[in-house]
Design goal:
The complex is a heterodimer. Chain A is α/β, with parallel strands linked by helices. Chain A folds into 2 domains: 8-120 and 253-362, FAD/NAD(P)-binding domain (3-Layer(bba) Sandwich); 123-249, FAD/NAD(P)-binding domain. In chain A, 32% of the residues lie in helices and 24% in strands. Chain A has helices at 15-26, 63-77, 137-145, 162-173, 192-200, 258-262, 303-320, 326-343, 346-363, and strands spanning 8-11, 31-34, 80-82, 85-91, 95-100, 104-109, 112-115, 119-121, 134-136, 154-158, 177-182, 205-206, 209-215, 222-227, 240-242, 246-249, 253-255, 267-270, 275-278, 291-293. Chain A has a 5-stranded parallel beta sheet with strand order 3-2-1-7-20, covered by helices on one side. In chain A, strands 9-16-10-11-12 form a 5-stranded parallel beta sheet. The radius of gyration of chain A is 21 Å and the shape is elongated. In chain A, 52% of the residues are buried. Chain B has a domain at 26-101: 2Fe-2S iron-sulphur cluster binding domain, sarcosine oxidase, alpha subunit, N-terminal domain (Ubiquitin-like (UB roll)). Chain B has 1 helix and 9 strands; from the N terminus they run ββββαβββββ. Chain B has one helix spanning 44-50; strands at residues 14-15, 19-20, 26-31, 34-39, 57-58, 64-65, 78-81, 84-88, 99-101. A 5-stranded mixed beta sheet of chain B has the order 4-3-9-7-8, covered by helices on one side. Chain B has a two-stranded antiparallel ribbon with strand order 1-2. Chain B has a two-stranded antiparallel ribbon with strand order 5-6. In chain B, strand 5 and strand 6 form a beta hairpin. The longest helix of chain B has 7 residues, at 44-50. The relative contact order of chain B is 0.20.
Chain lengths: 366, 119
Amino acid sequence: METERKPAIVVGAGPAGLCAAIELKKAGAPVILMDENSKPGGQLFKQIHKFFGSREHKAGTRGFEIGKELLTESLNLGIDVRLKTEVVGIESGLKVWAVENRNRSYTIEASKLILATGATENALSFPGWTLPGVMTAGCAQTLINVHRVLPGKRVLMIGSGNVGVIVAYQLMQAGAEVVAVVEALPKLGGYGVHTAKVARAGVPFRCATTILRAEGKESVERAIIAKIDSRFQPIPGTEETLEVDTICLAVGLTPSIELACIAGCKEIYIPELGGNMPGHDRYMRSSDESIYVVGDIAGVEEASTAMEEGRLAGIHAAYAMGYLDEATMKARTEETVQRLSSLRQGVFGQKRFAAKQRILEKGAAQ
Amino acid sequence: MKDGSIQESSRIGHHAILGDLETTEEVTIFFEGKALKARVGEPIMSALIAAGVTVFRYTKKGSPRRMFCGIGRCTDCVMMVDGVPGVRTCVTDVRDGMTVERQKGVGSWKIEAEAGDGN
């Protein structure tokens, strides 16, 4: 079997990127894993809740423990992990332009490129949203669970989806008081298990409600919320003032598609999974068949699905580089697709499953 | 500047899931000239929050800012670090003797350009 000696380059050492690199390395393919942060793991280490799924998906295991397992595996395999390395450009011929340590720039040619760049949290603008004390829910989660500092004492959470309720609960675990969880839609959006834990702790949930403004001199001192009608317009006379020092925004995520755009991957629009994103086929190949997209960049889901998508790309890239035979690639792809499907069940999962099917229909390699 | 913007420490010592905060080596950083203890390996952002700093910078029009995304995407938390303005304090680790100052607007360089965005 003729094998490609130029390395596969994986951008992003979160759950998706780590799993892609692990599959490539296990197959014997040369692989370089790049990440701009000083530590690998992406956003796994701030996830201290137990994951869902079956045992093979490590259900019941907390995110940071999964992170540790993946790091140990990549270390044992001897993967070339380049931290503090930002990929800032991709030129034709898969030349990857990287900046190391913010002061040394180099280009390196890849045989395959796997983009696992994740997603960025959405903002929500309202008067006062730039005040110190307004932050994304993920920011608060990083502060309390990774850096072990509490950004405030009394918190208002905007958004009742999974991120909103999980971070609300974790803020309480860290010692903060969550004053309310506000949801613009008429019904709650998160998994029942997480929502119930927050509700049991006595936190009021306010549906069909929005934040009108944040007030304070040098930082947040209070939030003014109001009920909204079916057209999302505030209802006069329903304003209420909450004394809070922190306002967390959990209003969705958008795939971080910059590198995919630079590389010319064809974009599609799938609102349920975060908006514009590069399309992909069942092997996670974008419209450019030497570039794979995995994890949140390919549609915002969860760490568990991101890991399986990373495996799919790693397996296929190893095959395309000549390090796995076709039968093995197909068998391993099938197993992984099965596991992915089982993660996309239930009320929330089915919606994601349907959306991912649309990506496959629209986004297959040209 | 009056520091009503510095509150008490907010370090999470014990955590129900994560256990006790491990002791690590400490370094000293200087925020607006004031010595603060920081944990080796942590970003400037969390050291400042632990010390109760609520304002990281002011915009050109004087509007206060702290941090927003905490993972290097939004640039809300930029400060003047060792004389270099615009350094993302959420993804720049502390170093012993480091000076950290609030900048106004885009700030100005106090040293020759060399290392770029910190480190």
